[in-house]
Amino acid sequence: MNSRVTDQAPHCPCNSNQPYRTCCGRFLDCDEFAATAELLMRSRYTAYTLKREDYLLATWHRSTRPASLDLANASQHWLGLTVKRHEQSNPDQAIVEFIARHKINGRAFRLHEISRFVREQNRWFYVDGDILSD
Ligand SMILES: [Zn+2]
């Protein structure tokens, strides 16, 4: 295997090993809806890396959605995502457990969270999450 990158399309920030265009770009730039909570979670991570506040708010359930995120002033530099678990308890509810790594002012952090998602009218929304300290 030649490990040099010959594919011109940049890989998606969500670590799927797919080009951004056919991975999270479909949801962030082309108004497609994520078919599963895991895909929505990945696209939201990508939105954080790209500071796409519009997308994050649009995919946040109205019951828990903040008024704004102030991402333009965020000093986080996102390093990578690992999805550990995706469980759908019924057609309209799911959890996704993930680890997202980031740096703030050169210091590395690890966010381990179990996020809750609900589906309404065929669209998944992020509700809230529990942060695990491990
Ligand atoms: Zn992606």
Structure description:
The chain is an alpha+beta fold. It has a single domain (20-132), classed as Nuclear Transport Factor 2, Chain: A, CATH 3.10.450. It contains 3 helices and 4 strands; from the N terminus they run αααββββ. It has helices spanning 25-28, 37-49, 53-58; strands at 76-90, 93-104, 107-120, 123-132. A 4-stranded antiparallel β-sheet has the order 1-2-3-4, covered by helices on one side. The longest helix is centred in the N-terminal third of the chain and has 13 residues, at 37-49. The protein is globular and about 40 Å long. Zinc ion is lined by residues 12, 14, 16, 23-24, 42, 46.
Please give the structural blueprint.
Blueprint: H1 25-28, H2 37-49, H3 53-58, E1 76-90, E2 93-104, E3 107-120, E4 123-132
Antiparallel strand pairs: 1-2, 2-3, 3-4
The site of zinc ion has 7 residues, from α2.
